[in-house]
Amino acid sequence: QRVLLLVASDVDALCACKILQALFQCDHVQYTLVPVSGWQELETAFLEHKDQFKYFILINCGANVDLLEILQPEEDTFFFVCDSHRPINVVNVYNDTQIKLLVKQDDELNVPAYDDIFRDDEDEEEDSENESDGSEPSEKRRRFEEDVIERTMKRRQRREWEARRREILFDYEQYEYHGTSSAMVMFDLAWIMSKDLNDMLWWAIVGLTDQWIQDKITQMKYVTDIGILQRHVSRHNHRNEDEENSLSIDCVRIAFEYDLRLALYQHWSLYESLCNTSYTSASFKLWSVQGQKRLQEFLADMGLPLKQVKQKFNSMDMSLKENLREMIEESANKFGMKDLRVQTFSIHFGFKNKFSASDIVYATASLMENVEKEGPETTNFIKALDSLSRGNLDKLHHGLDLAKKQLRAIQQTVASCICTNLVISQGPFLYCSLMEGTPDVKLFSKPVSLCLLSKYLLKSFVCSTKNKRCKLLPLVMAAPMVVEQGTVIMVGIPPETESSDKKNFFGRAFEKAADSTNSRTLHNHFDMSIIELKTEDRSKFLDALISLLS
User: Fold this and answer.
1) Which residue windows does the record flag with biased composition (Acidic residues) (predicted)?
2) Within its chain, how far is the Cα of 149 from the centroid?
3) Which of 248, 270, 511, 534 has minimal CB crowding within 10 Å?
């Protein structure tokens, strides 16, 4: 039986896909892989293949809508859904024949009880008229009255139940958030089958790191999952130090470490990385002259010569590199950056290949949303998928170069948005719109890049604004999508607060605002909080959104 794999376009999905491909290879399962970037592509792919395939595996797509409703499959078609999007649609949860959900056991789904949302319709209209032959008229009338009362009661109960059902479903579906990374779920599967390899473990680590970099999970969840993976890492990578057991240099070693929260610094210069990491650039407020001064003071405090800081990290003096982390952390604490250290993993193979998990996430995401060459979307997907294999270092290095360009573009866009006051408070949320013709605006017509930009922008705005109220607001960001068609892509992200639970209410709000104004929108993304909208409907859509959330 061949299997059809439908994989969403995000790094976590790619990692889960790599693990599953490796498992299929072990068991000689034949499969076809189709990348899908949204609901439309998912439906098209299903329609094209539904006659040849009975088994469909959906990775990071399909859990948060009623699949059977959308795809209308035959009775003998089965879906295996491994998706970190929450909340999972209730029909998918309670359908035990055609839809199988792959979920970690300790994931709290908080699904409403079956009886609260589904009920068997009793035959409301009983045939009470047929027994009217021999009985007394008074008897008949009494029975008829009882009947009417009973029916009214039943209707009333049904109305109450329906109202309660609406309320329960509203509470359950109101916020969008993310569960355990799909790559981790797949790795768990491999582990249970005793087929887990070090490479699969690395992909699980990259999948989790993707969730953290994209800000989809809380710090608490990240640290907990890192702990789970750390046990697997020590199981796979412990070695005795004596001569016989030492590994050949080409073997893979994964190591847990406390690393600096600086993007790509080992493949860049320390200076560039400090300037283009959202955490440091927002803390220093690098878009201002004052901020640039603070950065110079910071470097002086560490006692690092500018010449060293601005050259490639690989070429820095070994004497400086040895205790660089300690030096940076010590100075960062003086400058109020308490969280510059982060728990993560790195991978070593060959003599000089050392990558941290976040390097891989940035590189893979940039390859996937590469806008430089015009070509079919799938080529980017395949390149990104390939870059996750150790054998394709050239692709990975290309990805790292693209990622640096992207981070620079994000940083420059953030600086210009803040310096020209493009972030405006609309009442219940902040709003920022990129104009056509802004530098690098094409980059941000892609969802992952736009979300990264929005999160960086909100972080920086919170650091730069004096207004206490504005610090607690969520952000809606728009960028031109396809200029010829006159569409914009819009994303909503939750407030940037310490205790934020990363739950996003914009998905539902966007739907309602679009419905109430008949705006021409397309809810095509697997994340409900990203929509496409006709440019001329934008103002009425925003007005509706403001009155909805006020």
Assistant:
1) 120-136
2) 53
3) 248
Instruction: Give me the torsion for CA of 225, 227, 233, 234, rounded to 10°.
Output: -160
Domain locations in the chain?
3-108, 422-549
**Distance in angstroms (rounded) separating the CA atoms of residues 172 and 421:** 37
* Residue 459, both tokens: 């972080």
Sequence-ordered alpha helix ranges (H) in 465-537: 506-517
CA angle 343, 347, 352 (to 5 degrees): 125
List all residues 6 or more positions away from 176 whose beta carbon is below 8 Å from its beta carbon: 64, 85, 86, 87, 503, 504, 505, 506, 507, 508, 527, 528, 529
Would you say 337 and 283 are in contact if contact means Cβ atoms under 8 Å apart?
A: yes
Q: Which two tokens mark 227?
A: 């702990």
Q: Minimal CA–CA distance to 50: which of 97, 85, 98?
A: 98
The model scores a pTM over 0.85: yes
Architecture of domain 3-108: Alpha-Beta Complex (3.90)
Cα maximum dimension of the chain? 109
8 Å CB contact between 211 and 181: yes
Residues 6+ away with beta carbon under 8 Å from 171: none
Please measure the distance between the N-terminal and C-terminal CA atoms of the chain and give it in whole angstroms: 53
Pairing of strands 3-8, 55-59: parallel
Please give the Cα distance from 204 to 196 (Å, whole number). 11
CA distance 235 to 233: 5
CA 412 vs. chain centroid, Å, equals: 24
Architecture of domain 422-549: Roll (3.10)
What is the total residue count of the chain? 550
Q: Which residues are within 8 A (CB) of 191 and not within 5 positions of it... i.e. 6 or more apart?
A: 232
What are the tens digits of pLDDT across the range 351-389?
A: 778 999 999 999 999 999 998 876 777 889 999 999 999
> Which residues in 324-356 are b (16+ Cβ under 10 Å) and which e?
beeebbebbeebebeebbbebbbbbbeeeeebb
